[in-house]
Each structure stands twice: as C-alpha cells, then as structure tokens.
Amino acid sequence: MRKTDKKIDKQLTRVLTQLCEHTCKGIHGFVWLTHLVNYTNFPYSLKVVCIFDTNENLDVFMQDKKHIKLATQIGSKLNEADVNVNNVMDHVLYDTEENCAAQHAGEWDKRLAYSS
User: Could you give the 3-state DSSP secondary structure of residue 13?
Assistant: First the structure.
C-alpha cells in the first residue's frame, strides 16, 4: 500500500468508527461495520459493509427503509474524509453474522474476501 493509500485508509477508519460508535448504536440488530477497498481503483472499489446479527433484523431494517438514512450518513462521513462517490448506495453492502456462520463457518476474512 502506498503512503497516500495508508493515509486515506486511516481517514476512512476514523470516520467510519465515529459513525459506528455514535450513529449505529441505536440501530436494532446492528453489530459492526467495515470497509473494503482496492486502492488501484479507488474510490470506485470502496465498499462499506454493515453487519447485523440476524437476517430477520436486517430484513426489518431494510423494510423500514432505514438503510437510506444510514447510507446518507455514510456518505456524509465519506465526504468528511474527502472521499467522494457518485451514489453512496452503490458503495454500501449489508450482511449478517447469521449468514457468515452458515456459509463461511463464521470466518469473516473468507467471507469479506469473497465480497470484494
């Protein structure tokens, strides 16, 4: 990773951690988030993955259209880190611990490598 890539990654980690700690705590079933990126195709390759505990909680979150508000907040945080994307919805993915356990034996490294 180049020095500039490390700087961007540090900024992304900082703003997404803030989002996770301040905004996502109140979302029922939300557990954590992470980001995936290939810096040779940045920012187009950027994906923010929001992890919920169960499929049921994720389904309720999506049906209530709360994902739109969360995506908007993610977009604001990305802008704060000087990362501009055309449509933030294209850069946000959702997953569950339930799916990871069933499909990848709880090994998030393998699951996320498959997602990128």
Answer: helix
Residue 12 has a CB neighbour count (10 Å cut-off) of 19
In whole angstroms, what is the distance from residue 18 CA to residue 41 CA? 25
Q: What is the dihedral of CA 21, 25, 29, 30, to 10 degrees?
A: -20
On the question of pLDDT at 85 being above 70, the answer is yes
Whether the Cβ atoms of residue 51 and residue 93 lie closer than 8 Å to each other: no
Q: What DSSP element (H or E) covers 66?
A: helix 66-80
Strands 47-52 and 92-96 turn out to be parallel
Indicate yes or no: pTM above 0.85.
Answer: yes
Helix (H) or strand (E) segment spanning residue 51: strand 47-52
Q: Is the distance from CB of 58 to CB of 29 less than 8 angstroms?
A: yes
